[in-house]
Every structure is written in structure tokens, then in C-alpha cells.
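Workshop exercise sheet. Pairs work together: one partner reads the sequence aloud, the other fills in the structure field after running the prediction. Swap roles for the next sheet.
Pair: D.N. / O.F.
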Amino acid sequence: MRSKDVVRGIYASFELLDTLLLLGVAVVAFGVVTATLLPIPFPSNPPHVDLSAYIRGDYVFIEHMGGESLSFNTTQVSVSIGDESKPKPPLHERNSNGLWECGEYVQYFYNTTDLVSVLVIDTVSNCILLEGNLRRGETPWIGAPPPILVSSLRTNTVDEDLICYALPVEGFDAHTFIYNWKKNGEAIAQLLMPFDTQSLSSTRDYSGNGFNGNVYGATWVSSGVVGGAYCFDGVDDHILVSLPTAFNNLSTNNFTISLWVRSDDIATNTSVEKCLLEAYDDEENFVQLFQYESAIHFGVCIDGDKKAVKTPDLQDNTWYHIVATWCATEDSLTVYVDAEASTLGGSRDYQSGNNVYLSLGEKTDGNNSFSGYLDELCVYPFVRSPEQINQDYLDTKDGLTDHRTIVARETSLGESWSCTITPNNTYQDGEVVESEILTIISYSGGAP
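Structure field:
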């Protein structure tokens, strides 16, 4: 009887083992079938991409700054301005492939100071790519640093303006930003003297050409049109600068002089010539800007032959943007006041100084001292276009330095443009920032 129970136990053990083996085979078979026909969905890796959301002018941009391309259709872009949710806008593409690639962007109209909330999600990996808030005047960008130098339509063609933007500098309280534009690696300004650093002894040339000025008596003030300026007492205050080469060989060299001027007595002391600026090469070849009979006169003397034009009548204690251009090839000179051109005949009775310098506030011989303020002096070894002169006036008249513009008229096919930006806090310069390099290309037609 006992042996039968043992046999039955052995059979039961074998049956249990068979059952377990069959169950194991079934599980393995199910796994193989599932893996073959129904792959297990593992989580997708988030794309490696840098996005930037930033405020420029009257728009909020969200731009792809580098990394992997994104499928625009599977990218969720949620933006709210104030209490209003905005629909997802079309992508500004460089090529119509449906991918969001480096340099491509979406934009939203924004002309208020309302809070802008941004959320960008890759719906494939369900990962947040960019999240945060913007507000004009407080938080101008989030994410990757935005581009510094862009063309107006973002396609870098000959028909577009170039715009350079300054970004806030961490740990440095910048009051102004100084822009040194470069074409094919060379500064376009031969002299760039914004007068933004407080000093009673010297003033810096930011063109990189080394035409720094020595200050004699002129007083630095913080209340210039843009940042600081220098005040001249009308007695003997002046600034001396080594003569820029643009003023050599006036019979062949073109030039442009640009500065802001505020005279104490241009309308009330009309009988005396007062020299704002003289570029003296020799007694028969020199350039002057001077006030006389309520106007600012621009004179060019070449081999003893004096030419002159003047502005319309101006007022005391008023800032004016004065630009003087000399075109040697056309033997013509023009003076602009607040971007308005004038070729009115000026006085030709101006007399030269006697020292080879560029002098501000009086002639190089110490005579005809000016009473008033000068700011934002620039000298270019070419004739600036009327469009650029107007843009310079618009860019500076309100004292802002968040951006500067080169108009399309100033650029040509194949040129490479860049800009060096120097932040300044009135006491010193901060670390310079180099922009991207943009190469001007031809317009290919079609929608931008």
C-alpha cells in the first residue's frame, strides 16, 4: 500500500513539472511573438537642441539656435501674452522641408509690457525644450543667448538692413553700448569717439585705429545725447587728436564727419566765427565745422581753394545731429542737420589753424573757441549715404544704445559684416562682445 502512494507521488511531481515547463514555454513564446509583432514602446530620448525666446522691437521671437532639427508639426509651441493665449504661428523657414532648423524662428507681435509666457514641448519624447517668462524692460530673453547680428528679413541679402543688438552683461551695469561695425574684418569708421567714459584728460577712439584724444580743459558731462559728452567753455577748452588719414589728400579722399552739437549762443552771438572742429593738414588743405550767423558752416579748403555750405538757422541750447560729407570725385560737399541735407552756400572767409591735428572746440592754433557741447564724434573715410545718415539720426536721437543699424544701401554682394560691442558704465568699459559674421548674398526671389 505504501509503495503505491510513493508511485502516485512521483507521477504527481512529474505532472507538476510538465505543467511548469509548458507554462514557461508559453511565456517565452508569447514574449517572442510580442517582441516580433508588437514591439515594446521604450521612452524616446529628448532632442539635443538650443532654443532662444527673445524680445526685439515689436516682436517676440522663438529661434532655433543650434543642435538637432525638430519636426515642426510635432513641436508644441504655447505662448501667452498677458491673459491671451496665442495660436502657433507658421515657421519662418530657410528651406521648406518641415523641419525647424538652426536660424529658423516663429514670431509674435508684441508692443506692450505684458508678461509673455513661453512653453515649447517635443511631443514625440514628451520633453520640455524651453519654458519661462519674458517681459519688456525686465527679462528680454530666455534659453540660449539670442543672435546679436541679424539681417532685417533673416536671409542676409543685399536688400536687407543689418541690425546689431546688445545683450545685458551679467555683473556689469552698462549705461551705454558702443558699436564698432566691421566690413571684411576692417572697421568702417576711422575714428569712433562716443565720449561715454568720464575723464578730464583723455578720450578713447573705439575704431581700433588708435586716434585717442587728449582733453585740455573741456568738462565731461553725463547728459550727452547718448551717454556722456564734453562741454567747451568758449575760452580755451579743446580736445586734440592725431590727424586721421581721411583728411590727407583732400583732392582724392572722400570722408564723412558725424557728431551731435549743442551751442550755447549760435542764435545770439552771430557775428563771430566759432570753431567746432578743424582737421588741419597744412595752411592750404584743411577742413572746418564752425558756427557763424546762426548756422553751422562746413568748409573744405584744397590747395587754397575754399568751398563752404551751411545749415539753415539753428537755435541756442538745442541738440542737433550734424553730418558733413565730402565727395572728392564729384567735388561736392553737403551738410546735414537732423538728417536733412543742405547745400546752402556758406561763408568762405574762414581762416586755418597751424598745427597738424584734428581739433575739437577751437582751431588748431587756439583761436575761435566754441561754447557748447559735442557728442558722438565719428569720421568715415567714405561718403555715408543719405539713408544711413537718416538711420544714424534715428538710432541715436533718443539716447538709446540697445541696437544699431546699417542700411541695405551701405552693403554689397559678397561682403562679410560683423560688429564689436563694448559695454560702458561711464567709468570704464566692460568685456567686449563679438557678433556673428554675416555674408551678404543675392536675393533668390520668392517669399522671404
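Discussion prompt: Confidence is low (pLDDT under 50) at residues 10-14. What would you look at next?
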